[in-house]
Design a protein that fits this description.
Blueprint: H1 14-17, H2 21-33, E1 39-41, H3 44-51, H4 59-71, E2 75-80, E3 83-88, H5 91-94, E4 115-120, E5 123-127, E6 150-151, H6 184-196, H7 204-216, H8 221-233, H9 239-252, H10 257-260, E7 275-277, E8 284-286
Parallel strand pairs: 6-7
Antiparallel strand pairs: 1-3, 2-3, 4-5, 7-8
């Protein structure tokens, strides 16, 4: 389970400070026990067993403290099919997850879950995911973590999907890159994130150096080829693996023979697809079949 973050500012929060000490402890315990979506079971008996296993407290006391935390606008307590749940309302304001799994609990009305998970080898699925720079990633799975079949094109060439993946991944004109493109770096990052998920921010400066070298050599198309090679060959696809590929190709002056002389990717069988990435909105749209 992802590590939960507790902002130190909570100790100076007036609404938090006026609650009894046990209600404050309950509020902290709720954060610790929440799932990746900031959600959990809110039955007082259950919370007592999870948060106060060594304290002589009653379920009635826990229920009273829970009501105080809810009145504090920290959580929303709600029922689904007669069962009690809570949702931490400012969850995403304080949590910075690299991955977030779907919740096993039903969400409250109007709430959007944010999902980022590994769908299969080398393929990251996202839903309602906001990157560290505040941008929304394309949806490639739903809120249950199930893959959406998304087809992405570039220069009308199809990249074969990784083995055992339920997503058809190809390359799209919506993220095409040319040496005359002033925003080529951003588009190369888009190519990465369309296949492998959020690019590691700490590696941006290093990646920019490789992008500029590719542009200087009129070889920007190698970037997408290196992504494909990384997905196909790496047990755990990463920037470090892809960087080593680019370094070897730049030293050799050409991509490896397995890429240039192998089976034409456009002729490889690709799964049928139901969505494409809209080049204006960046969001998946259904394909009329």
């Amino acid at each position: 389970m992802t590590r939960r973050m507790l902002d130190s500012a909570i100790w100076k929060n007036e609404k938090f400070g006026v609650m009894p000490s046990m209600a404050r402890l309950l509020a902290i315990g709720i954060i610790n026990h929440a799932d990746d979506q900031g959600r959990g079971k809110a039955h007082p008996v259950y919370l007592r067993s999870q948060i106060f296993p060594y304290d002589d407290v009653t379920a009635t006391e826990v229920a009273d403290w829970l009501a105080m935390v809810a009145d504090n606008e920290t959580i929303q307590v709600y029922q689904v099919d007669g069962k009690d749940y809570y949702q931490i309302l400012n969850w995403w304001a304080y949590q910075s997850h690299q991955y977030a799994m779907p919740s096993q609990y039903p969400k409250p009305d109007g709430w959007l879950d944010r999902i980022r998970k590994t769908l299969t080898k080398g393929v990251i699925g996202t839903c309602n995911w906001i990157t560290t720079d505040g941008k929304r990633s394309p949806d490639t799975c739903d809120e249950q973590g199930l893959a959406i079949q998304v087809n992405i094109h570039l220069n009308n060439q199809v990249i074969p999907s990784p083995e055992d993946t339920s997503i058809s991944i190809s390359i799209s004109k919506s993220i095409s890159v040319s040496s005359n493109d002033d925003d080529f770096r951003g588009r190369l990052i888009q190519q990465w994130e369309a296949v492998l998920g959020m690019f590691p921010t700490a590696s941006y400066p290093e990646a920019i150096g490789y992008m500029d070298r590719l542009k200087k050599g009129d070889a920007l198309d190698w970037w997408q080829l290196a992504i494909t090679e990384t997905v196909d060959k790496a047990k755990r696809p990463s920037w470090q693996y892809m960087k080593s590929i680019l370094e070897s190709w730049l030293a050799a002056g050409k991509p490896s023979s397995s890429i240039t002389n192998g089976t034409d990717p456009a002729k490889k069988k690709s799964a049928t697809f139901t969505h494409f990435i809209n080049p204006i909105t960046g969001q998946p749209e259904a394909v009329n079949q």
